[in-house]
Amino acid sequence: MKSTIIIEEVVNKLDHLPSPLTTRMPNIKVFSGSSHPDLAQKIVDRLGIDLGKVVTKKFSNMETCVEIGESVRGEDVYIVQSGSGEINDNLMELLIMINACKIASASRVTAVIPCFPYARQDKKDKSRAPITAKLVANILSVSGADHIITMDLHASQIQGFFDIPVDNLFAEPAVLKWIKENIPDWKTSIVVSPDAGGAKRVTSIADRLNVEFALIHKERKKANEVASMVLVGDVKDRTAILVDDMADTCGTICHAAEKLIEAGAIKVYAILTHGIFSGPAISRINNACLEAVVVTNTIPQERHMQECPKIQCIDVSMMLAEAVRRTHNGESVSYLFSNVPY
């Protein structure tokens, strides 16, 4: 009889507990900077929470002002800001938002930076050259960031510039999925790196697709200008898939596509994680012999897709959202290095 009463009391208590939806993600706040609000919205939709209230504005002298519109005391805070558009303004806005949350007693502040700014300035390649990626790492740490989540860093050694944890996610699983679903003859294709620096990325994709790879060696006379290119590998009568981590003015990718067609490739696809597309990039792609240029949405692509029908976009918001969820719950993120979450 006594045990029956105890069981009834436990059942009554369970009935009064909040539903799983309200208990699923406690103590988490996700805020969006002004660089990519669409991606931040997709991340919170996936997590089943609302986007945090924040107002970002500029004073008449162009100083950035940020007002966090809700309490973050004791919360696990994630700030989504990509290194695109007005890069310097967006970076400053991110630093101010991190600091605002930190001094408002947030328990942990994580910067979700899908496209890391200044990632190409990662080494001293000539006399008196700055290592700006290290400087960005320092100012992010000093502003109060406790953790960084980013995607496809230009050089993975940038993780070592930080004294805080950095999760460098890969777009590779999403790229493999796109290739298998959208390129009919992918089994006989060849994966090509447009420069020696991307050889590791390309060999990894080629191994997982079980296809061959080729490499293009390029020499630059100065930044954003390619002088000469040499193809190493046989692409004759095959579909070539160019893979790189980013494309800015698209000079390299368009020259590489021409070189591959000259060498006998049937079709050329370009797959890039970060489609920056500045300067003459769009007109170059429109005039190039590329079947499609596939990018991820680490940078907003709506305008680029309207201007160029060849550009297609892979959504990686689910990978970033899953990384946020796993980090918040203290789970391992390594599953995302080789799988796309559904």
Task: Please provide a written account of the structure.
This protein has 342 residues and is of the alpha/beta class. It has 11 helices and 14 strands. Helix 7 links the parallel strand 8 and strand 9. Helix 3 crosses helix 11. About 4% of the residues have low confidence.
Summarize the structure.
With 342 residues, the chain is of the alpha/beta class. Helix content is 35%, strand content 25%.
**What is the helix/strand order?**
HHEHEEEHEHEEHEHEEEHEHEHEH
Low-confidence stretches: 13-24
Radius of gyration, Cα only, in angstroms?
23 Å
Mean pLDDT across every amino acid position: 90
- Class of secondary structure makeup: alpha/beta
Strand content: 15-25%
For the largest beta-sheet, the strand count, sense and barrel status come to:
7 strands, mixed
Termini separation: 48 Å
Helix content: 25-40%
Question: How many β strands by DSSP?
Answer: 14
Q: SSE layout and pairings?
A:
Layout: H1 2-15, H2 20-23, E1 28-32, H3 37-47, E2 54-58, E3 64-68, E4 76-80, H4 87-103, E5 108-113, H5 132-143, E6 147-151, E7 166-169, H6 172-182, E8 190-193, H7 199-209, E9 212-222, E10 225-232, E11 239-247, H8 251-262, E12 267-275, H9 281-287, E13 292-296, H10 302-307, E14 311-314, H11 317-329
Parallel strand pairs: 1-4, 4-5, 5-6, 6-7, 8-9, 8-11, 11-12, 12-13, 13-14
Antiparallel strand pairs: 2-3, 9-10
Key traits:
single chain, 342 residues, alpha/beta, seven-stranded mixed β-sheet, five-stranded parallel β-sheet, 11 helices, 35% helix, globular, nucleotide biosynthesis, magnesium, ATP binding, kinase
